[in-house]
Design brief:
Helices cover 64% and strands 0% of the residues. The protein contains six helices and no strands. Helix 1 packs antiparallel against helix 4, helix 3 crosses helix 4 and helix 3 runs antiparallel to helix 6. It is globular, with a radius of gyration of 14 Å.
Amino acid sequence: MRHHITAAALAVAALTLTACTAASTDTGTTADKPKAATSKPKTPEHSTPETAFLLTVHSKIPALAKAPDDQILDVGRSSCDAIDEGNSPTAVAATVEKNAQIGLRASGYLVGAAVSQLCPQHKSEL
């Protein structure tokens, strides 16, 4: 039963993320570009795992550049929850891709970043 609840939560988080990215428009100005991905190097000295996760996602998945950080974190945490329940990272990435429609490669980066930063106990499953 919990497996279905987490899958549903993951789907809702991914759909919410998609709605936000689809609704955003690109004005073409550099002021709108995410500063976190370009101004800070990706090093282990990030203040929190959440910051490291967000920097990775913003640098590897341009489609999510304007998505709110809290929603990206929700998808990352839901991904970890789904893996905690026994789903493979590959299956979780496929679910994220299906619901967020950001492509399987981008979904894989997102789930991989979540595992690396938010639930590192699952790194051996990557």
